[in-house]
């Protein structure tokens, strides 16, 4: 039915925005440090869990930004541990920290799913009712990506991050503190992950181990852009979210993660065939 299709498209776009935010955090860290941050999904869970706690004492509009700030601080702390080593060692460190986060999250928030109220109500799109909160997710994500683009292209700090990503040695020569830029990238990654968790949780309950789904889908979105291009990551996240929504609506929701893994595999094979020498693509 056309009405069902419209509903699947909107919910898929909303979910895909969450994947894109997680993926963009991966991109922000990888561009500067060449570290694949497997703790990125944990940032989203921390943001979501903190928001669920903060909103019991703070109103909407304050609780959510506070949760994103906590996620950014957690990202910075992960960066302090992970940076200063080789990218390969840092990958293992971030994976270990992601597992350690399970224990902390269960200790603080327990092992039961958590959620909180989002934007209330529903809207009618081509005859089908869609939760208004999905439109909020889309409405927040698109300006965030536009702001990121402006930040990296028009601000001195953003240009410094780009310089560190393009040529760390040359960046050091001209006086840039590459380690500090790496820590800033981790903080940005934490904030983006936290924002994803805060936005998505009102429509999808979060648990302490929800980072697995988030990191798989976020990585699938990021890998479309070679872990270096946020705009392509956004497109990848939207494509992934819509595809999963259509499969869940017209087929079996149990295959949603399979789609992400299949997409990653297909893109990696395509890149290997297209670039057998393994040269990096331009950021």
UniProtKB/TrEMBL annotation:
State a GO cellular component annotated for this protein. Answer: plasma membrane
CDD domains recorded for this chain? TM_PBP1_LivH_like
How does this protein lie in the membrane? Multi-pass membrane protein
Concerning Pfam families, the annotation shows: BPD_transp_2
Q: Which organism is it from?
A: Actinophytocola oryzae
Query: How is this protein named in the record?
Result: Amino acid/amide ABC transporter membrane protein 1 (HAAT family)
Q: Which PANTHER family match?
A: ABC TRANSPORTER PERMEASE PROTEIN, BRANCHED-CHAIN AMINO ACID TRANSPORT SYSTEM PERMEASE PROTEIN LIVH
**Annotated GO biological process:** amino acid transport
């Amino acid at each position: 039915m056309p009405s069902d299709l419209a509903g699947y498209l909107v919910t898929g776009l909303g979910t895909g925005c969450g994947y894109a935010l997680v993926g963009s955090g991966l991109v922000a860290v990888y561009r500067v440090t060449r570290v694949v941050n497997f703790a990125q999904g944990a940032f989203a869970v921390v943001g979501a869990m903190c928001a669920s706690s903060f909103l019991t004492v703070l109103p909407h509009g304050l609780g959510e930004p506070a949760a994103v700030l906590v996620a950014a601080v957690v990202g910075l702390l992960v960066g302090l541990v992970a940076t200063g080593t080789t990218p390969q060692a840092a990958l293992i460190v971030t994976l270990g920290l992601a597992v350690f986060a399970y224990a902390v999250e269960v200790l603080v928030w327990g092992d039961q799913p958590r959620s909180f109220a989002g934007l209330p109500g529903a809207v009618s799109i081509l005859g089908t009712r869609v939760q208004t909160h999905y439109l909020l997710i889309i409405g927040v994500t698109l300006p965030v990506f536009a702001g990121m683009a402006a930040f990296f292209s028009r601000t001195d700090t953003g240009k410094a991050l780009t310089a560190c990503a393009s040529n760390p040695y040359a960046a050091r020569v001209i006086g840039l503190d590459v380690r500090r830029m790496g820590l800033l990238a981790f903080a940005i990654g934490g904030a983006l992950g936290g924002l994803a968790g805060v936005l998505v949780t009102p429509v999808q309950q979060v648990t302490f181990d929800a980072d697995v789904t988030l990191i798989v889908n976020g990585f699938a979105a990021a890998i479309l852009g070679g872990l270096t291009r946020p705009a392509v990551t956004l497109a990848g996240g939207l494509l992934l979210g819509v595809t999963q929504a259509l499969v869940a609506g017209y087929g079996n929701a149990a295959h949603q993660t399979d789609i992400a893994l299949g997409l990653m595999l297909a893109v990696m094979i395509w890149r290997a065939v297209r670039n057998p020498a393994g040269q990096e693509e331009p950021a």
